[in-house]
Inverse folding.
């Protein structure tokens, strides 16, 4: 069996120049989108998306691939969303959509035949419909309750056929909507962490409460505890520090190896923890991110390796060591 002949070119192809031309075309598309984004239409579209129980994203072909990504981004930033394929929708999947949802439909031309069933269903059951399209007089634009128009710019494809600039604009507009909705919902990093428990991102979003030492593991003494006994506690717990707490379990000070070096003299063992401790030590809350704890440790420039964890009233509940963060992949 003969092998297929190798394709050759008449002249050299400047790959970098072609790539730069594509990037320039798509950047120009994004700049046009930024300039033409409706100051009234965009907030109204967000109102509809925020008002639904879920956002149903749909699109055909390349718009569909973009739609899947938009649905994933919305879901991970606090707006429940999922993708429904328009062709499958007309064969039973419309039953997945309820009157409490809102539909986000993507089509550059606005006349994608496979979307017809979805548009009919939205009108039949009065389901809000937000459209992303480039054509003002299209079927999709006519059916939508709110329209986000893409500017009329050329595709990066030299033949003007392959969706390139248009899908880049769709993707960016989807990101803009997701982040704007996230801001509306006051979506916190801690909540973001609940949706991203795995991988490197999950490690960055681990909370202090998940890593801290508690209970009998904590090196604690009273203000009137003799330093001879305090040294035994510090040595037994192996954190290089001790928490000084009052009768209400509130943290009033900390004793570190550095404090011991600064007070090293013949009378050290006759003194009390109150005389040696550093008052008002740096602390952190249990629901803070472990990454924030590492930042605090590094920011002082004094080689802090541990942070005590306290509640709002100053009551001691835990201790976080930098080694705990390292083992969890946070630092």
């Amino acid at each position: 069996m003969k092998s297929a002949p190798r394709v050759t070119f008449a002249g050299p192809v400047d790959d970098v120049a072609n790539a730069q031309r594509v990037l320039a075309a798509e950047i120009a598309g994004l700049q046009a989108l930024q300039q033409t984004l409706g100051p009234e239409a965009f907030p109204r579209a967000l109102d509809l998306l925020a008002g639904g129980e879920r956002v149903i994203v749909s699109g055909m072909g390349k718009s569909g691939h973009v739609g899947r990504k938009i649905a994933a981004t919305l879901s991970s930033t606090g707006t429940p969303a999922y993708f429904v394929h328009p062709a499958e929708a007309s064969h039973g999947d419309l039953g997945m959509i309820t009157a409490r949802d809102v539909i986000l439909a993507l089509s550059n031309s606005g006349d994608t035949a496979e979307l017809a069933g979805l548009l009919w269903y939205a009108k039949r059951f009065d389901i809000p419909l937000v459209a992303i399209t480039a054509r003002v007089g299209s079927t999709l634009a006519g059916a939508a309750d709110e329209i986000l128009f893409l500017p009329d710019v050329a595709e990066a494809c030299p033949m003007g056929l392959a969706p390139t600039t248009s899908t880049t604009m769709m993707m960016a507009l989807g990101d803009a909507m997701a982040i704007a909705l996230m801001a509306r919902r006051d979506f916190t990093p801690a909540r973001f962490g609940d949706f991203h428990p795995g991988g490197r991102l999950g490690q960055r979003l681990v909370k202090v409460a998940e890593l801290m030492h508690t209970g009998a593991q904590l090196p604690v003494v009273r203000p009137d505890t003799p330093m001879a006994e305090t040294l035994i506690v510090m040595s037994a717990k192996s954190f290089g520090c001790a928490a000084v707490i009052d009768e209400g379990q509130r943290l009033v000070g900390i004793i570190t190896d550095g404090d011991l070096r600064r007070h090293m003299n013949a009378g050290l063992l006759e003194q009390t923890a109150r005389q040696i401790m550093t008052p008002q030590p740096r602390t952190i809350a249990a629901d803070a991110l472990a990454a924030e704890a590492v930042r605090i440790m590094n920011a002082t420039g004094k080689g802090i390796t541990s942070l005590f964890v306290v509640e709002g009233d100053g009551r001691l509940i835990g201790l976080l060591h930098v080694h705990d963060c390292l083992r969890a992949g946070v630092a």
About this structure: The CA atoms of residues 16 and 304 lie 49 Å apart.
